[in-house]
Amino acid sequence: MALDVGSRTIGLAVTDPLGYTAQGLLTIRRKNKRTDLAALAEVIRNYAVAELVVGLPLRMSGAEGIQAERMREFVAVLEAHFDLPIHLWDERLTSVEANRLLRETEMSIKKRAAVVDQLAAVLILQNWMEARHHPMEP
Q1: How far is CA 21 from CA 2, 38, 75, 104, 116, in A?
Q2: CA 94 – CA 133 distance, rounded (Å)
């Protein structure tokens, strides 16, 4: 399962059983750590999640900034709460790409805002799976 974690929402995506395609799930509206973790635990249980991929917000240069540091802290909380492998994945431009794809539809701005985090999570997961199935040649 992939997570696109923001300050107000957590976009979610899961894979098909073979791990080739990503499907978005409903976005979690963040409230507090306890509630957020409970919501994640329910999704993990319902979808029999075996590992997590968390988007790492890097700067365009590839350097880590304050947001990446916050995400590493969030991942530490996830590691303490869930006994699952957790992978950080470069999420640069996933929200930009998600917004671009949604603008190409005739969806209203309000509806696009509601699904952009979900689509960003799908893109994170799809990119991670493609890299896993087709590692770069040396």
Answers
A1: 12, 26, 24, 21, 18
A2: 20
Interacting residues of 132 by C-beta distance below 8 A, sequence separation 6+: 19
To 10 degrees, what angle do helices 109-133 and 94-103 make? 130
Superfamily of domain 2-133: YqgF/RNase H-like domain (3.30.420.140)
Q: 113 pLDDT exceeds 70?
A: no
Q: Per the structure block, which two tokens stand in for 21?
A: 């395609």
CA dist 66 and 56 (Å) reads: 11
Q: Are 55 and 22 contacting, i.e. CB atoms less than 8 angstroms apart?
A: no
pLDDT tens-digit readout, 80-108: 999 999 999 988 767 677 777 777 777 77
